[in-house]
Design brief:
Blueprint lengths: L1 H14 L2 H17 L3 H17 L3 H17 L3 H15 L5 H17 L3 H18 L2 H17 L3 H12 L4 H4 L1 H18 L5 H15 L2 H17 L3 H18 L2 H14 L2 H132 L3 H21 L9 H12 L5 E5 L11 H22 L3 E8 L3 E8 L13 H12 L3 E6 L5 E8 L8 E2 L1
Parallel strand pairs: 1-2, 4-6
Antiparallel strand pairs: 2-3, 3-5, 4-5
Helix pairs in contact: 1-2, 2-3, 3-4, 3-16, 4-5, 4-6, 5-6, 6-7, 6-8, 7-8, 8-9, 8-11, 9-11, 11-12, 11-13, 12-13, 13-14, 13-15, 14-15, 15-16, 16-17, 18-19, 19-20
Length: 574
């Protein structure tokens, strides 16, 4: 037991598991019980019980209360034991642990007998028998019948006592399965027969019980058997045999601390001897009886003190717990207030940041809108210039061309015609693209159709996937002109035979990707032509991003990204 207790203590120190601490105190209680220091045993049972209460282990609480009650009953603290057992029921009945409920009701019956409450004792034993019927626990059934038999035996109702002893003995194979219970019932049956005057089988039954207990090494009950044999021979005036069994009873009682049989053995020896020897036994009897009385009273007081101090400590702990909970609540409230303060501060910063962001976004959108308006104004100017070139300059040049032809100045007329064509092309280039009459999608399709040839194939993706009417005309115009410029470059300079054009509209920008299989060029050496420079300027006006990737012999990839909300990007060439 010491070894197990030490191991459990070691495990608890490593894990700090309350179940192990409760078990450690339980084993300490058992250890003290084995050394007959019942006050210490009572103390440790109390500690174990209190810890099990805190962790809501109802079974452990019920078992510890049962152990406390048994100690109290043995110390004749019957009222204290009764209180402990009734409390144990409060924990064991809800979880219906039959084996421990049987033991609680059995001990309540034994205590009721000691308090001379016969009816209560019978009711408790009846409850035990009801549980026996459900569990079919033969061992418990024999114990209960034995207790009922003893109850009537103490009241000299031996016939009824014998009926209960016989009920217990009638259990199937009780002698082989439960020899200790069999010996107990047989001995009590023999005692009732002896007290009724039926002595013919009594000695045979006592001797049979004696052999069983010697074989089972049941030293505690051997003192009882020897007392019964001593009383039997004493009744028959066989003093020598009565002395022998009284001495045997005394030795076993001392060995097992069976105080009741110890006193009975000393009383018998005092009666069976004479002179100084008898006086000596009587003196020992009186001293032991006084000592036991004082010890019982001390234990009762000690048990009461332990209960009082434990209850007091528990109340103090409850008060401390309440105060601690109050302090914890105050700390929590302070933390919550502090947290709320920080949250409000963060929220204020967030709102301020959102306000600033909203302001700059608004400002940027307004600037972007103003930029779009400036672009539209320039487009209008270009349109006016193109109209003037087409209607006025080109018209004047046509008239002059005719005059030169009529004057047979054919060479000059031919040169002037070339100038007229250049002016006409310039007017077309300057003219603004309108998407009011012809939608953007159709404009792109028409543009591709104009340039498409068998040896110059153009594939377009994404043009039909979006509602282009939602985009600003300046963006659509840029996309259109970028597409036209790229197609012209691919045909004129790149010598491409295949172009892939991809349109896509994302959440924040519109993207135009153009890939050709032309001859490519070295972007670090080649200078951008006037067309490409114009394209870049148009893209920069809308804060767009132009990326051109090309290698000699591997074609060219052009990527144009125009923001929908005016974010500024840089142009890259690789």
């Amino acid at each position: 037991m010491k070894t197990i207790t030490t191991q459990v203590d070691s495990f608890y120190k490593k894990t700090k598991d309350s179940i192990l601490l409760a078990k450690y105190y339980h084993f300490k209680a058992l250890q003290n019980k084995l050394t007959y220091t019942n006050d210490s045993s009572f103390y440790y049972y109390h500690l174990s019980k209190d810890i099990s209460k805190k962790i809501n282990d109802s079974l452990a609480v019920g078992r510890r209360l049962l152990s406390l009650a048994i100690l109290q009953r043995e110390a004749k603290d019957y009222r204290g034991g009764e209180i402990s057992l009734i409390e144990a029921l409060q924990y064991l009945e809800p979880i219906q642990t039959s084996i421990y409920l049987e033991r609680v009701y059995t001990n309540l019956g034994l205590i009721s007998e000691e308090l001379d409450q016969k009816d209560d004792a019978i009711q408790y034993y009846a409850k035990t028998l009801n549980i026996n019927k459900r569990t079919k626990d033969k061992r418990s059934y024999t114990f209960t019948n034995n207790n009922l038999g003893l109850l009537y035996q103490k009241r000299n109702n031996h016939k009824k006592a014998i009926s209960y002893f016989n009920k217990g003995l009638s259990q199937d194979s009780i002698k082989e399965k439960y020899p200790t219970q069999y010996a107990l019932l047989l001995e009590n049956l023999a005692a009732s027969n002896f007290l009724l005057g039926k002595k013919e089988n009594v000695l045979r039954q006592y001797n049979k019980v004696l052999r069983i207990r010697e074989r089972e090494k049941d030293f505690t009950e051997l003192s009882t058997t020897h007392i019964n044999l001593a009383d039997y021979y004493k009744n028959l005036n066989q003093t020598k045999k009565a002395l022998f069994h009284s001495n045997e009873a005394l030795q076993y009682a001392k060995q097992t601390h069976n105080n009741k049989r110890w006193l009975e053995a000393l009383k018998n020896l005092s009666d069976l001897t004479s002179g100084e020897q008898s006086k000596q036994y009587l003196k020992e009897y009186i001293a032991l009886n006084d000592s036991l009385f004082q010890n019982e009273r001390r234990l009762k007081n000690q048990f009461a003190k332990i209960r009082y101090e434990t209850d007091k400590k528990e109340k103090e702990n409850t008060v401390l717990k309440t105060e601690n909970e109050k302090k914890q609540a105050e700390i929590l409230q302070h933390k919550q207030q502090k947290t709320i303060g920080w949250l409000l501060f963060v929220l204020s910063l967030l709102l301020f940041g959102v306000g600033v962001l909203f302001y700059f976004n608004r400002k940027r959108k307004l600037l972007y809108q103003a930029q779009l308006e400036r672009i539209q104004a320039r487009e209008h100017e270009r349109k006016q210039i193109a109209k003037s070139l087409h209607d006025e300059v080109a018209g004047d040049l046509r008239l002059l061309h005719r005059k030169l032809e009529k004057s047979n100045l054919l060479e000059e007329a031919q040169k002037l015609d070339a100038v007229k064509e250049n002016v006409r092309n310039l007017s077309h280039q300057l003219s603004s693209v309108s998407f009011d009459k012809v939608p953007f999608k159709d404009q792109i399709i028409n543009l591709v159709s104009d340039y498409f040839e068998l040896d110059f194939k153009i594939k377009v993706y994404g043009i039909r996937d979006y509602d282009w009417t939602t985009l600003d005309n300046s963006i659509k115009r840029l996309l259109y002109l970028s597409t036209r410029e790229s197609i012209q470059n691919c045909k004129k300079h790149a010598k491409a035979s295949k172009i892939t054009i991809n349109f896509s509209v994302r959440k924040k920008y519109v993207h135009l990707g153009i890939i050709d299989n032309g001859i490519g060029f070295n972007t670090t050496v080649n200078k951008k032509g006037i067309g490409l420079q114009n394209l870049q300027e148009r893209i920069e006006e809308l804060n767009g991003k132009l990326t051109i990737s090309s290698e000699v012999g591997k074609g060219t990839q052009t990527s144009i990204q125009i923001p929908l909300n005016g974010w500024t990007n840089k142009n890259t060439f690789s």
